[in-house]
Amino acid sequence: MSDAFRELLRKVGSGPHTGKNLNRSEAAAATRMMLLQEATPAQIGAFMIAHRIKRPTGEELAGMLDAYAELGPQLQPIGSEQAVLVLSSPYDGRSRTAPISPLTALIVAAAGYPVIMHGGDRMPTKQGLPLVEVWQGLGIDWTRLTLEQVQQVLATTQLGFVYLPQHFPQAHGLVPYRDQIGKRPPFATLELLWGPYAGSANIVSGFVHPPTEVMLQDAFQLRGFPAYFTTVKGLEGSCDLPRDRTAIIGLGQGGADFFLERLLLAPRDYDFAGIDVPLEETTQLIAEMQAVLQGDGSELGRSAIWNGGFYLWRCGACADLATGLTQAEALLTQGQAAAQLQKVQQAIAGLASDLQDHAFTG
Predict the structure, then answer these.
(1) CA distance 61 to 149
(2) How many CB atoms lie within 10 A of CB 3?
(3) β-strands 201-206, 159-163 pairing
(4) At a CB cut-off of 8 Å and minimum separation 6, what does 109 contact?
(5) What angle do CA 154, 157, 163 make, to 5 degrees?
(6) Which domains, ranges and CATH numbers included, belong to the chain?
(7) What integer is the mean pLDDT of 47-57?
(8) Would the pLDDT of 359 be above 70?
(9) Phi and psi of 26, rounded to 5°?
(10) Which Pfam family, any one, appears in the UniProt record (predicted)?
């Protein structure tokens, strides 16, 4: 048992009258001890459920991010003039609506703006469809790559994916606790803030409940990182903009000149109002995505343009949203997004070929 961890657990788990919030360094220490399994399983489970009941603060999340930055993987700067767009989504996946972000990432990368995503396998408690399975369906398997190989793919194709079991096993080691406690712990919020990139980044964090957005903003302000951030009341807490309602968005800048601008984005104002495509079988979703990449004008294609156009504008690829939407549509209908997918497939295949050649010659 860790006596140091017990004191931190006692602080957050003493109830509404005597319990206290952790300061930033205490939150970092608690997270570090959990990641390194220095705390016992009983202590880790108790901390997670107590912290969920108490609710994390922005300062605590900032400290937890400090521990992630210390122990977790980081892709290195690739020399891009643009801030890398980090599209964060809940790790426990999707169950009701079709994910859009893989298509968004291909559109943005095809325009020359780098994108990083991160996540793991199917995860409690939701056990929804994870993005890594969507990428596998599209012919890209991130699960077999080392972090160094992901770095190479990012540098050559403007697209990368940090896969939790392979690249951050300490964090992956905490996943079983989600099932055992039966609830999302505050780590599920932390993952929406995490940006596994050492250079200038624009981290996009989805949220469902307004208090979560406030915690995100507080954590970003305290850490002074990233350079830019975007908060989105998105589909199932993801960074996917809805089309059946007005999107509530925060456009933020980190660092000393921290600020946040509120944007209420109504799809009907741009003739993009419509349904948010329901999630059916994975094979059907992949077939629909492949059709979108061939210029199909389906509802899923419209959602891809809506999201791609917004994020192109947010990245600075165009002066206004209307231009971004036009550009996103052109990247789909003219085949650049599909070509981007093929480029990533070829880059990964080339890495596998190089490894085989090295093993043969060795």
Answers:
(1) 30
(2) 6
(3) unpaired
(4) 115, 157, 158, 159, 340
(5) 40
(6) 3-54 (no CATH), 84-338 (3.40.1030.10)
(7) 95
(8) no
(9) -65, -40
(10) Glycos_transf_3
Q: Which residues pair with 228 in a beta bridge?
A: 202, 253
Q: How many residues does the chain have?
A: 362
Instruction: Return the CA Rg of the chain.
Output: 20
Measured in degrees and rounded to the nearest 5, phi and psi for residue 252 equal: -120, 160
> Which 3-state string (H, E, C) describes the chain?
CCHHHHHHHHHHCCHHHHCCCCCHHHHHHHHHHHHCCCCCHHHHHHHHHHHHHHCCCHHHHHHHHHHHHHHCCCECCCCCCCCEEEECCCCCCECCECCCHHHHHHHHHHCCCCEEEEECCCCCCCCCECHHHHHHHCCCCHHHCCHHHHHHHHHHHCEEEEEHHHHCHHHHCCHHHHHHHCCCCCHHHHHHHCCCECCCEEEEEECCCHHHHHHHHHHHHHHCCCCEEEEECCHHHCCCCCCCCCEEEEEEECCCCCEEEEEEECHHHHCCCCCCCECCCHHHHHHHHHHHHCCCCCHHHHHHHHHHHHHHHHHCCCCCHHHHHHHHHHHHHCCHHHHHHHHHHHHHHHHHHHHHHHHHHC
Measured on CA atoms in the order 250, 23, 50, 38, is the torsion positive or negative? positive
Q: What angle do CA 185, 307, 172 make, to 5 degrees?
A: 25
Question: Using one digit for the tens of pLDDT, what is the confidence trace for 201-245?
Answer: 999 999 999 899 999 999 999 999 999 999 999 999 999 999 999
On whether the CB atoms of residues 137 and 149 are closer than 8 A, the answer is: no
Calculate helix-pair angle for 282-293, 299-315, nearest 10 degrees: 60
Tell the burial category of 358 from Cβ atoms under 10 Å away from its Cβ (0-12, 13-18, 19+). Answer: exposed
CA geometry: angle 335, 337, 343, nearest 5 deg: 100
In angstroms, the CA 360 to CA 203 distance is: 41
What is the value of pTM for the model shown? 0.95
pLDDT level of residue 354 (50, 70, 90 thresholds): low
Amino acid found at 290 = Q
Distance (Å, whole) CA 52 – CA 175: 15
